[in-house]
Amino acid sequence: MNRTDLPMSTSNFQKSNHVSIIVKTAACSRLFLLALIIFWRSLFEPYDTSAPLNPNCLSLESQPAETVLWPRIGSAIQGSIVWDAVYFVRIAQCGYEYEQSYAFLPLLPICISFLSRTVFAPLGPLIGHRAVLGLSGYVLNNIAFVLAAVYFYKLSAIILKDKEAAFRASILFCFNPASIFYSSIYSESLYALFSLGGVYHIISGSNNIAVLWFALSGSARSNGVLNAGYFCFQTMHEAYQAIFLKKHAYLSMQVLFVGVLRCLCIFVPFVAFQAYGYYNICLGHLPDEMSPWCKARVPLVYNYLQRHYWGVGFLRYFQLKQLPNFLLASPVLSLALCSIIHYVKLQPEIFFSLGFRASPGEKNSAAVLFPLGVDKRSKNDQFSAKSIPKTQEKNHNLRRRKQLQGEASAASTIGNESSSARPGYSSAFVLPFVLHLGFMAATAFFVMHVQSSLLGSYLLALLFTGLPRT
What is the spatial distance between Cα 174 and Cα 171, in angstroms, rounded to a whole number? Predict the structure, then answer.
């Protein structure tokens, strides 16, 4: 092995060691949290009493009573199915029966139903079908969380350019304040996995895979469609370069077409689910029998249900009785706000120009999001060299030698600019994530239930606070 290979092999060993520790830490954190859930439920009665409610599916007139071998284990699992988990398990068991169930997107119920019919099907006679559904949800979400933690580390290492900072942030992510949601039968784990994985793939240059992952995140939670913003950011800069720098109108149209197509693919699962709800609830009914949202110009069942059943809307959560929830979310929102302000102070020109005023060195450090274009002079030179007669070869070699000297000088200049690019949190690479963080934090505070900021803003804020400030 050459000496020059040692730093790379050491870096790879460090990365694999970090990944191994993160997997073990994430798994142990889930086991610890599940143990806490069992412990506290054995001491106190649950606040939500909807767990025992399990009427027969509407599609079945009567359902025979189950005889199970381990009724206590089955009852314990069914007793833990509360809050939103009631809806997810019910949908996995019976499908979308009621209007309010369309507020819960289908990816998690589909996965739960699949696991209960395949991997965990032999447990049905032992603990009962509904308990198998609940167990499938717990196993699925906890495995998804461990994988999300791994992607969180890989993504942080690329963006922050500091493996130790990425490692610390990933360990903190394993013990974040929203951990209970990531280990319960909620859609947060799948959303985090596909969102983080999608961003990782787009930064790695695998745009088609990133589109698929973002589309899956949008079929887990509605805010997954916001991940299309990363392609919007990338397309915006590529189109600007094609129009104003390359002066290439056809290339700009091609860039815009591909960018719009990718964004539409990300929106397809969410839009298709809205169409599915309209087909089941609205079609075939008289106008007087229709729900109000069916008569809207743009009939979106999700927006109506969130507003009607859960009180989601601009400033609708600003009530005195919700003050404890604002206090609960205040640390995370403060962390997000401080992260954004800190970045703006470090890079005001880049932030307010949306990255267009970034230096070539800073753009080069994030070439996936800030394309600089490929220098094709070498290919053109090869083509022209083949067409040059041998009598002119000497003159061509002389011109080529001068050109190489110029390229070396330009490379030296770009290298100096790249070295001046600020690494880690203050780099231009972080700008799209800061914008995403700001939008999610503002939406959680002004529109959604403010405590939901624990689920999204904290995940993004950790990305920027896992390193010391310089």
Answer: 5
